[in-house]
Write a structure and sequence with these properties.
Order of helices and strands: EHEHEEHHHHHH
Shape: globular
CATH topology of the largest domain: Glutathione S-transferase Yfyf (Class Pi), Chain A, domain 2
Distance between the termini: 34 Å
CATH architecture of the largest domain: Up-down Bundle
Number of domains: 2
Number of helices: 8
Helix content: 55-70%
Mean pLDDT: 97
Number of strands: 4
Strand order of the largest sheet: 2-1-3-4
Radius of gyration: 17 Å
Structural class: alpha+beta
Length: about 210
């Protein structure tokens, strides 16, 4: 099976990188440099007109959207237990990943690029402030879900990888995570996983390569 992951530094594409690594899958990574618009180049648009990452290509067939990609990885590498075995808990895990994608991610995107949601002059700081307030509510919910737990379920699963990205991105935008003690503990545990260490080393190598080519 030929697996290709299209990826860009700092993006949520890090989550399937982590889960593919956890699954011990044999996969190729093709980094895209967003700063020079590689994600909108004609050759990439042919396989992904959404011009986003992550994109997984399996034996030439593209699959977009994080939740679908993570679900495919978990089902294909079921021995890695990336989703709970119980059907109801599996759905809860998929729900958590959907929440990361459609509940948390959009507010992080607003902080990253406020002009994409409001082009009225002098409103950028207001957009960021409102997004940060919404993130406070969302991380409060996540903190409750992680109370007295190591991970969201009784072992590491795909939602942990996606939520790790959410926390990491929030930190990159200087969101104060200290009030969310359970989230912080989860983040610190994730940082100790070999799959995360491999991802961070790979990300650094990609960023260095992009900088050298500039």
């Amino acid at each position: 099976m030929d697996i290709v992951l299209y990826y860009a530094p700092n993006t949520c594409a890090l989550a399937p990188y982590i889960t593919l690594t956890e699954a011990e899958a044999n996969f190729e990574v093709r980094p895209l440099n967003f700063k020079i618009g590689q994600h909108t180049a004609a050759d990439y648009l042919k396989i992904n007109p959404k011009h986003k990452v992550p994109l997984l290509v399996v034996d030439g067939k593209p699959l977009s959207e994080s939740v679908a990609i993570q679900t495919w990885i978990a089902r294909t590498y079921s021995q890695s237990r990336l989703l709970p075995a119980d059907p109801w808990r599996e759905l809860q895990a998929i729900s958590l990943m959907s929440w990361c994608s459609s509940g948390i991610h959009p507010f992080l995107a607003r902080i990253n690029s406020p002009v994409r949601v409001c082009d009225v002059p002098d409103t950028e700081e207001s957009v960021k402030r409102l997004a940060a307030a919404n993130l406070t509510e969302l991380f409060t919910i996540a903190d409750g879900l992680l109370a007295d737990r190591t991970f969201f379920f009784d072992h590491f699963t795909a939602p942990d990888a996606h939520f790790f990205w959410c926390q990491r991105r929030a930190r990159q935008f200087d969101i104060d995570m200290s009030p969310f003690r359970n989230c912080v503990a989860h983040f610190e545990r994730m940082m100790l996983r070999p799959s995360v260490g491999k991802l961070l080393a790979f990300e650094k190598s990609v960023q260095n390569a992009f900088a050298a080519a500039a």
